[in-house]
Design goal:
elongated; mainly alpha; 6 helices
Length: about 190
């Protein structure tokens, strides 16, 4: 096999190109720069799809369909694409719903706290102050101390925001296919 380094190079270049295209596409669509898109999965184009399609395309271009490894690579690529547009897409949608529910719970808890002056309070023992100098009076009782008790369980308050950019729409998977095939063809 001559030039077998393309079997390694094309998928890696396709992955990097697809990942670099994500924030560029966000700039074009939303007119804002989002550097987080460089490290996140999900979005247009699918970098996972670009990687496996570049491998399949490079195997096809290199071997011409004679190698049984091509069949293995093709089925792995199909599984990756199905998973990206199916299970991972649904997981991202579920993360979005959970994030909204947690935000609503926190907002409702804060509204409840504001209506009761910030916190649920409990009464505690009243501390005594020193008697006033020069008087025979008994010590003055100070106002009750407010105990701050959060009304939402700690696990709702400290729950991190879930990543909603996990999977892909079918068009994003198709975009990854195009990137993968283009990179394999250009590098071949």
């Amino acid at each position: 096999m001559t030039n077998s380094y393309h079997l390694w190079l094309a998928p890696l270049v396709a992955l990097v190109v697809a990942q670099l295209l994500k924030p560029v596409i966000v700039v074009i669509r939303a007119r804002r720069w989002d550097p987080q898109r460089l490290r996140q999965s999900g979005g247009m184009p699918s970098s996972h799809t670009a990687l496996v399609v570049a491998l399949v395309a490079e195997l096809w271009l290199h071997e011409g369909g004679r190698n049984p490894v091509l069949a293995l690579a093709l089925f792995v690529a199909l599984i990756v694409m199905y998973d990206a547009a199916g299970v991972r897409w649904q997981t991202g949608r579920q993360a979005a719903v959970l994030n909204r529910l947690l935000q609503d719970l926190r907002r409702a808890d804060l509204a409840g706290r504001r209506s009761s002056h910030g916190f649920r309070t409990g009464r505690s023992a009243r501390p005594l102050s020193e008697p006033r100098p020069g008087s025979d009076a008994r010590p003055v009782v100070q106002s009750p101390i407010q105990i701050q008790v959060p009304s939402v369980p700690w696990w709702l308050m400290d729950w991190p925001e879930l990543d909603e950019h996990l999977g892909h729409k079918p068009i994003e998977v198709l975009g990854g296919c195009v990137v993968g095939m283009a990179v394999a063809w250009i590098l071949h």
